[in-house]
Every structure is written in structure tokens, then in C-alpha cells.
Design brief:
- By secondary structure, the chain is α/β, with parallel strands linked by helices.
- The chain is built from 16 helices and 17 strands.
- A hairpin with a 2-residue loop joins strand 13 and strand 14.
- It is globular and about 75 Å long.
- The N and C termini lie far apart (71 Å).
Length: 514
């Protein structure tokens, strides 16, 4: 088969991890040094590093957590003002375009989808994608009193794509929905209720799933936390596995205290051949899917993700594959519900089908918006070792908000064309939204969570249904402790319980009926 020379292909991948303990200040990793290490590894992985380096005309960097939201990284470390140009200088590349992505864990796969199309159209020649986090180093330095300065000013033009669209609206923020740790439990409990599980049964299911992920991380040389943990430990509160937000304990959620970097190199078949990249390094994108969901409280069913469903189904259809044809998966795993919903859509049993190649965000490490760059890198290496097989990567951003999927293989596609994601987005947009209320009302709890601070319950949010619509509410200040106590009462499942909502000044406040 003669390949179209414009067919896009992945030719190099690289990863880096650093377990810096704070003892040698001169050895502290930075976001820029981790991207440099990963990018040099990706260049070496091509087998034609010098030729590929000279051909790079685009460098795109996944947005760092420090530039994504305030307070996500300890202050005082400084940073590079133009990360893609800083990376170019470090590796000796001279790109004509430098791009800094929007916020979101979908970004690595979304960038692959974008630049595969640009390569096919002849708009770019060779693209380096990279990203990193050094949050562990920043926290270790702060704890040990080690001064670090990552400030770097770079000349040149950079395309800064900004933060991207808002994923929550003012109504939600006023009424208690905010950080991921207080939002994903709303999906988790809704799924639990739909499946008919008790709280204990769902914690056991989450812990069993995560025990398998931790086993994968234990053998991953790039994992930040390479230690197998059994389901009993993962499901039992302890000093090292304390409650963070019902139903989650510490190790049920993504761990962002990492020092990790990952990079990918894409080009065309014709350019790869001209640069002397061996065909043994080539991995092709066969299909893709992308979709963005509505704000959380406007979604029709909190126990499902229409964006995940549509993106997965669209990617499989564009690749001409069914889940039965997929041998390898890396599913974004910030919280168990993301994996469970993807597995449900794919029709695979997460207890018997491995759904991570890295160990996932709790164990391999939640490298900010860049986790799926590691997932794609691991997928490329896995497919090279299993030529002819197919693999699927699902990257997730926000609050099950932004989904990007890629289907890969060493087998070349018979023909390649960019995938139109607009019909997928139209499907998500077409879902009906419940009427959202701001008024005094009585309703029944649809989902909820209680957030913890220093081991003690400190805040809560509920989503309730009334005969007219849906209400998002936080505890009434007059009975905050009583409301929280009712939600964590082991004798009664909060879902389905009656609550009374009092509305004032844009805020819905609830109390739980006896």
C-alpha cells in the first residue's frame, strides 16, 4: 500500500519524572527542565534527532497549573513567561509558531487531533507537543525552606490561547459547586444511585478499580507514586488515606504533587521518511472525537456524561472500529467516575479490562493538564511492542466537561482525512436541560457531597429535584453542622431525602428534613 505522504504520524515520545527530596537545592527540577528532558527523550526516540530538531516548525505547550487558576501552585517560584519559546531555546529548536494551550486535561489529545489535521493540510511540517508540572518540587521547597527561582523571560511572539471557556457559571459558584474535589462526587454519587449501590458497595468498587491501576503504576518507570496498594487499604480511612470529599479518600483522587514531563513529535509520512525516521517508530492516528458539555447543573443526567459518550462513539466510528477491536486503553482517571462512565460507554468490564497504561492520575501522577501526554506516550510505546493492534486514549478536562479521544495503531490507515467534530458537539448541545431554580422550595436530594478539611467535615453541596426543576444549594448557615451531619449519617443514604431550600440574595441554602 502506497501511503499519502501527507498522512500524519507520531514519530517520537518522551517522558521524565523526578523524585527530588529537597536535599540538593541545585538539583531541583523545574517545569522547563522537565519539558526539556522529555523533549530530548522524544527527539532521541525518533532515531533521527538532529534532522527532526531542525524540522520543528511548531512547538505547543500544555498550559501549566500555575497559569490555569490561582493557588494551584505554591507562590514564590516564578516561571517562564513564554513556555514554548523557553523550551525551544533549551533544545535548540527554531519554530515559526509557539503556542500555549488552554486549560484542561483534554489538551494533549486535542492538540494531537488539531495538528494531525494541520500536517495533513500541509500547513505545518513537524510539531513538538510538550507539558510538565513541578508542583512536588515547589511544595517540597516551601516545606524545607529551599529558595527556588524559576523565573525566565523570553523574547519572541507566542500565541497564548488563554484559559478557554468557563466550565461553571455564577449560579453554580454561588451555591457551592467549584473545585473538582467538590464537583466530581456529585457525579460519583449519582452513578452510585443509578447502579443501586450503597455507599460502602461503591467505595469497594472504586477501591478495587484503583488497586488495579496502582499495580500498573508500580511497574511504570515514569510514575511518581510507583507503589501497589490493595483495595482494602484504598477503601479504609487512615492517617495516610484520609477523607477529602465524600465518597473519596485521599488515594481515590488525582495526586498533583508531581515532577513530571512528557513530549510528543508529529509529522507527515513524507517528512518522516525524508528525515530518516525508521518506520518502526511510526504510530498513526486512525480516528478522533471531541465534545464539550454544558455547565454541571444544566446536564440532563448527572449519572452519565453525554460528552464522554459522544466523543468515544465518534472516535470509534471515524476509525471504523468497535470496542472489541481495541486491545489497549488509557482512560483519564482523575476520579473513579470518569473511568466507570467510559467503561460503561465502551461496554467493557473495568474489573477485567485494563484501562490504564500508566497507573492513572492517582498513582502514576496527575501532571496537571498534561496527564494524557503521558498516556499517549505510553500508548505509542505499547503499540510499537504490539504491532498491528489498536489503542484508545480518552483525555478529560474540567468537570467531565471537555473530552478528546484518539485511536492509534502502528498499522497505517488506508486513507486519512481530518475528523469533523462539529456533529459530535451538536449531539451534546441537543440534550435537554432541566429548569434551574432560585426560590424557596422543598425537594429531594439527587446528589451531594461533604468536603473535609484536616480530617473534619467542613462544607457541603447538594443538587436536588423539585416538581419544577433542579436546585443547587449549600448548607444553611443557621444549621450548617446539622445539615452536614445528616449527609454523613451512616444510617441513612442522603439520596432521596427531603430538604428545604431557602433562597436569598442569589444563594440557595438547605436544611435536611428529619
Amino acid at each position: 500500500m502506497t501511503l499519502d505522504p501527507n498522512t500524519p504520524v507520531l514519530i517520537g515520545v518522551g517522558q521524565a519524572v523526578d523524585h527530588w527530596d529537597g536535599s540538593d537545592a541545585a538539583a531541583v527540577p523545574s517545569p522547563q527542565s522537565l519539558m526539556q528532558r522529555a523533549s530530548e527523550a522524544a527527539l532521541a526516540d525518533t532515531g533521527a534527532a538532529d534532522a527532526v530538531r531542525a524540522a520543528i516548525d511548531v512547538i505547543a505547550v500544555v498550559r501549566h497549573f500555575a497559569d490555569s487558576a490561582p493557588g494551584m501552585v505554591p507562590e514564590g517560584t516564578g516561571g517562564c513567561d513564554k513556555p514554548p519559546l523557553g523550551l525551544a531555546r533549551r533544545i535548540g529548536a527554531a519554530p515559526s509558531r509557539a503556542i500555549y494551550s488552554i486549560v484542561g486535561g483534554q489538551s494533549p489529545q486535542s492538540l494531537v487531533n488539531e495538528f494531525a489535521a494541520a500536517i495533513h493540510a500541509g500547513e505545518v511540517k513537524c510539531v513538538l507537543l510538550s507539558g510538565s508540572e513541578a508542583i512536588a518540587a515547589a511544595k517540597t521547597a516551601a516545606r524545607k525552606g529551599v529558595a527556588i527561582d524559576w523565573a525566565e523571560t523570553i523574547d519572541g511572539e507566542m500565541e497564548d490561547r488563554g484559559l478557554g471557556p468557563m466550565l461553571l457559571d455564577r449560579h453554580e459558584l454561588r451555591n457551592g459547586i467549584g473545585a473538582p474535589i467538590l464537583t466530581y462526587p456529585l457525579f460519583e454519587h449519582a452513578l452510585r444511585a443509578r447502579l443501586g449501590r450503597t455507599r460502602a458497595e461503591h467505595v469497594a468498587a472504586m477501591s478495587e478499580l484503583w488497586a488495579g491501576f496502582s499495580t500498573v503504576a508500580a511497574t511504570n518507570p515514569y510514575a511518581q507514586f510507583p507503589k501497589a496498594m490493595d483495595a482494602q487499604y484504598l477503601g479504609t480511612p487512615s492517617d495516610s488515606n484520609y477523607p477529602v470529599a465524600d465518597p473519596y479518600l485521599k488515594w481515590h483522587v488525582a495526586q498533583d504533587a508531581v515532577n513530571q514531563g512528557a513530549s510528543l513529535i508529529l509529522t507527515s509520512v513524507g517528512q518522516a521518511a525524508a528525515m530518516g525516521v525508521p518506520q518502526s517508530q511510526w504510530v498513526f492516528l486512525h480516528g478522533s472525537g471531541e465534545a464539550m458539555d454544558k455547565p454541571v447543573s444544566l446536564r440532563a443526567d448527572l449519572s452519565r456524561s453525554r460528552a464522554i459518550e459522544v466523543a468515544l462513539e465518534g472516535a470509534l466510528a471515524s476509525a471504523g472500529k468497535t470496542p472489541e477491536a481495541i486491545a489497549h486503553y488509557d482512560i483519564y482517571s482523575c476520579f473513579p467516575v470518569a473511568v466507570l462512565l467510559a467503561a460503561e460507554t465502551l461496554g467493557v468490564d473495568p474489573r477485567t479490562t485494563p484501562l490504564t497504561l500508566t497507573g492513572g492520575l492517582p498513582f502514576s501522577g496527575g501532571a496537571g493538564n498534561n496527564y494524557s501526554m503521558h498516556g499517549i506516550a505510553a500508548m505509542v510505546e505499547t503499540l510499537r511492542a504490539d504491532p498491528g493492534s489498536f489503542g484508545l486514549v480518552l483525555a478529560n478536562g474540567g468537570f467531565l466537561s471537555k473530552e478528546a479521544v484518539g485511536i492509534y495503531s502502528t498499522t497505517a490507515p488506508a486513507s486519512w482525512a481530518p475528523v469533523d467534530h462539529a456533529p459530535m458537539q451538536a449531539e451534546v448541545d441537543a440534550q435537554a436541560s432541566p429548569e434551574r431554580l432560585e426560590e424557596d422550595a422543598t425537594g429531594t436530594i439527587e446528589s451531594y457531597t461533604v468536603g473535609y478539611a484536616k480530617g473534619r467535615p467542613a462544607r457541603a453541596v447538594v443538587i436536588a429535584r423539585t416538581g419544577k426543576g433542579r436546585i443547587v444549594a449549600r448548607p444553611d448557615d443557621a444549621d450548617k453542622e446539622g445539615a452536614i451531619a445528616a449527609l454523613i449519617d451512616p444510617a441513612r443514604d442522603p439520596i432521596g431525602r427531603t430538604i428545604t431550600i431557602r433562597h436569598a440574595d442569589g444563594v440557595n441554602a438547605f436544611t435536611v428534613s428529619a
